Amino acid sequence: MDCRTTPTKRSRQGATLVETLVALLLGAILATVIAAFMVYTARNFAALSNCIDLDQRNQTAIDHMTRSIRQAQRVTAFATNQVTVLDADGAALTYAYDPAARTLTRSKGTERTVLLREVDAFAFAMMQRNIIAKTLNNYPTTDVNQCKILGVYWNCSRTILGKKSNVSGGQSTRVAIRSL
């Protein structure tokens, strides 16, 4: 016995217009979800890369400043955005923050090096070695001759994919001038 299926009129037709529109709509929704996920992933990857890069730059700058300031003989000039110390070799060493350029620079003689870029806020503070009772803070001073500790505070940010990203947070340190 030979069994055959005979084609009907319905089975010979293609998809109806409604079926095609439903399939296109589902495909468009799926493509939109995938595109949104890709944008979200790209933003997070960019933010993470930015965080790592800013953290490395901040760490390099703080290491460089700490090493130089600890070896300094004394503070010779002070402003909240600039400090000059007498380096171990007797030369003037200046760290200066330029708010217009958003940079922190190190100057010694004719050598000028940019330590940090994209700095939103920066401040130096002079302190004595004495600690305020029942705190971990040092007494502030306005006299360069009494300055034994320099406080350094800053904040960096960048624009990532059109949004300002402040992933580095505020950075701060206190550096004791050891030669005093």
Structure in a nutshell:
Helix content is 30%, strand content 38%. The strands form three sheets. A five-stranded antiparallel beta sheet has the order 1-2-3-4-5, covered by helices on one side. It has a four-stranded antiparallel beta sheet with strand order 7-6-8-11, with helices on one face. A two-stranded antiparallel ribbon has the order 9-10.
Explain the layout of strands and helices.
Blueprint: H1 17-70, E1 74-79, E2 82-86, E3 92-98, E4 103-108, E5 111-117, E6 119-131, E7 138-140, E8 149-156, E9 158-160, E10 163-165, E11 170-176
Antiparallel strand pairs: 1-2, 2-3, 3-4, 4-5, 6-7, 6-8, 8-11, 9-10
Biggest sheet features: 5 strands, antiparallel
* Order of strands across the main sheet: 1-2-3-4-5
- Secondary structure: number of strands: 11
Q: Separation of termini?
A: 111 Å
Count the helices. How many?
Answer: 1
Q: What is the ordering of alpha helices and beta strands?
A: HEEEEEEEEEEE
What's the alpha carbon Rg, rounded to whole Å?
Answer: 31 Å
Taken as a percent bin, the fraction of beta residues is 35-45%
Describe the protein.
The chain is α+β, with helices and mostly antiparallel strands and 180 residues long. The protein contains one helix and eleven strands. The strands form three sheets. It has a five-stranded antiparallel β-sheet with strand order 1-2-3-4-5, with helices on one face. A four-stranded antiparallel β-sheet has the order 7-6-8-11, with helices on one face. It has a two-stranded antiparallel sheet with strand order 9-10. The protein is rod-shaped, with a radius of gyration of 31 Å. The N and C termini lie far apart (111 Å).
